[in-house]
Design brief:
This protein has about 325 residues and is α/β, with parallel strands linked by helices. It has 16 helices and ten strands.
Length: about 325
């Protein structure tokens, strides 16, 4: 065996080994987020004191944190740990905190779902249906604590992308922007701040709207279910990481509901990690399998989204890159 062949064989072995064990550092991240360890780390925290604050075993915590350090999360010097830019995102008080997202991906229902991915491969149905009949949305409705974690995670995840979206797309020409299934309205509030002359409408389920503070000037709430209830009329409709949650039939139904409310010439924006068939992107592929297992949705190409939009009465006009992980597909009602 030549040196090059041996090196290639070693690399191949390590690739399989690393992927096989990828869940281990992920679980370490989940548990550290769940315990709020990052909130207890100051400039230099001795692991014994840190363990006492977190009410955990110091040796076990040290070994978990060492693994995270090897992946670039936290900084270690001897028996002390401190923050770096990555670990700071696990703090609850960070303006772009990802703690809730790490907690969400560590929920037991998610662990069970991915352990049953063979169900999806055998049937084509989301694996979560073998864990919780009715799927993810039914599960969250009946588990309010998990739903709260999920909602906080979606807001946290979006915070990393909102700035890039607003830098790439100008909302000022629109008199009215409707954020469809926009959660707590984090994107829409940022849009209205960037375009102060614009009026915003947040369309969300009644249970979500009822948990929100008073909307404030320029913002209104519209309660409803986009599969059942009429949507508001607006000049621009924004769907941020919504269409990828659904299969083609349901995604088309959502777009048709928007078209029923929209006037000809109204704009719809699909904001998500729109994938490129010519690029093997691990991030997009990971999110695609998450959708496969949890919701039955998928990450789509511009062409695939164009078919759905065409069936709903829209014409694609642009695909806009951002400085982040999102792309913006723009279409108009015809």
């Amino acid at each position: 065996m030549t040196t090059d062949t041996a090196s290639a064989a070693t690399l191949a072995h390590e690739t399989v080994w690393s992927l096989t064990n990828a869940a281990v550092p992920a679980h370490c991240l989940h548990v550290v987020a769940q315990l709020g360890v990052a909130d207890q780390v100051d400039d230099e925290s001795d692991v014994a004191a840190l363990a006492e604050r977190c009410a955990v075993d110091p040796d076990s915590l040290d070994r978990v944190l060492r693994l995270l350090v090897s992946h670039g999360v936290f900084t270690r010097r001897g028996s002390t740990y401190s923050h770096n830019d990555t670990s700071a995102l696990l703090r609850s008080d960070h303006p772009r905190s990802m703690r809730a997202f790490a907690q969400m991906m560590g929920l037991p229902v998610f662990d069970e779902t991915f352990a049953r991915l063979t169900h999806t491969l055998a049937t084509g149905a989301p694996a979560i249906e073998s864990v919780s009949p009715g799927g993810l949305w039914t599960y969250l409705r009946s588990h309010p604590e998990a739903a709260e974690t999920f909602n906080r995670a979606m807001e946290a995840k979006a915070q990393a992308d909102i700035g890039a979206v607003l830098s790439a797309y100008d909302f000022q020409p629109f008199a009215t922007v409707a954020d469809i299934a926009g959660g707590r309205g984090h994107l829409l509030r940022a849009v209205l701040e960037a375009a102060p002359g614009t009026r915003g409408i947040l369309f969300e389920l009644p249970g979500v709207v009822d948990s929100l503070p008073e909307p404030g000037p320029g913002l209104s709430y519209h309660r409803g279910d986009f599969f059942v209830d009429p949507l508001p009329r607006a000049d621009c409709y924004v769907l941020m990481e919504i269409i990828h949650d659904w299969d083609d039939a349901e995604a088309t139904a959502i777009l048709r509901a928007i078209r029923s409310a929209a006037s000809p010439g109204a704009t719809v924006l699909i904001v998500e990690g729109i994938r490129d068939d010519d690029v093997d992107d691990p991030r997009a592929a990971t999110l695609d399998v998450i959708m496969l297992a949890l919701t039955g949705g998928r990450e789509r190409t511009p062409a695939q989204l164009g078919v759905l939009l065409g069936d709903a009465g829209f014409r694609t006009t642009a695909v806009i890159e951002t400085a982040g992980t999102m792309r913006v597909l723009e279409a108009v009602a015809i």
